[in-house]
Structure formats: structure tokens, C-alpha cells
């Protein structure tokens, strides 16, 4: 009688622990396949760093202030506090966090620009 099920072509064998590991590519790469060269970040073209904006800094500061408000209100930061004192602390944190976030983002952006320029000049 003919067999009704197709047998699987690739055998999956486990190791001593029982974990199945993939074999990876066993065939030769095609001739027209693009070759990856250099470092991995240089080959990634999708993400470019964005310049710092006050809006993004304010959003990050708002998130931090909300978390601080929740911790202050729940009493995690010390003694029991009222809602008004927790809100005052959150507003003060928002005022201080916004410029800190902006200058941190700007520093990171400028550093990545320098790295990209250095990598671009090194290829030439």
C-alpha cells in the first residue's frame, strides 16, 4: 500500500540536553546575492538619528514625572504623602527633567553624527 503522508526532508536532532538547534544554511550562496561587508551598523540603512526637540524632551520628562507622582502617592519614596504634595513634586520634576532630557538627546545626536561622519570618511 502506498504511503499517504509525506516524510519530512530535514531531520531535527536534539543535543544531550534535548534542545533542537537549527543547522543554518547548508547550500552555497547565490552568485547574484548581495554580500554583507564591514560592520553590522554600517550595513543597516533604516535608522538615522533624529535631532533633539523640546517636544520629545517634554514627553520623556512627562513620563518620568508621572512615574514619580505614582511612587510619591503610593508612599514608595518615604512617608505617606498627599495627592497635592505628590503633584507638586511631579510638576517640579517635569520642570527640571525637560532641559536635562533635551541636552542629553542633543549630546547623543551629536555623538552619533560624529561617529557616522567618521565611518563615512573611513570608507573612502
Describe this structure in words.
There is one protein chain. Helix 2 (54-74) runs antiparallel to helix 3. With 124 residues, the chain is mostly helical. The longest helix has 41 residues, at 83-123. It has a domain at 52-123. The chain contains three helices and no strands. The mean pLDDT is 80. Helices cover 53% and strands 0% of the residues. It starts with 39 loop residues before the first helix and ends with a helix.
Distance between the termini: 67 Å
- Which structural class matches the secondary elements? mainly alpha
Which bin fits the share of residues in helices? 40-55%
Q: Average pLDDT value?
A: 80
- Amount of beta strand: under 5%
Rounded radius of gyration (Å): 27 Å
Index terms:
124 residues, mainly alpha, 3 helices
Topology at a glance:
Blueprint: H1 40-43, H2 54-74, H3 83-123
Helix pairs in contact: 2-3
Would you kindly provide a brief summary of this structure?
The model has no long low-confidence stretch (mean pLDDT 80).
Amino acid at each position: 500500500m502506498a504511503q499517504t503522508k509525506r516524510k519530512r526532508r530535514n531531520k531535527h536532532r536534539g543535543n544531550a540536553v534535548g534542545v533542537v538547534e537549527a543547522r543554518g544554511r547548508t547550500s552555497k550562496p547565490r552568485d547574484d546575492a548581495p554580500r554583507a561587508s564591514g560592520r553590522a551598523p554600517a550595513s543597516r540603512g533604516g535608522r538615522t538619528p533624529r535631532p533633539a526637540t523640546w517636544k520629545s524632551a517634554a514627553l520623556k520628562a512627562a513620563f518620568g514625572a508621572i512615574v514619580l507622582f505614582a511612587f510619591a502617592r503610593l508612599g514608595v519614596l518615604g512617608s505617606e504623602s498627599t495627592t497635592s504634595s505628590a503633584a507638586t513634586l511631579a510638576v517640579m520634576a517635569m520642570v527640571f527633567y525637560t532641559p536635562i532630557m533635551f541636552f542629553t538627546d542633543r549630546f547623543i545626536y551629536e555623538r552619533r553624527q560624529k561617529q557616522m561622519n567618521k565611518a563615512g570618511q573611513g570608507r573612502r
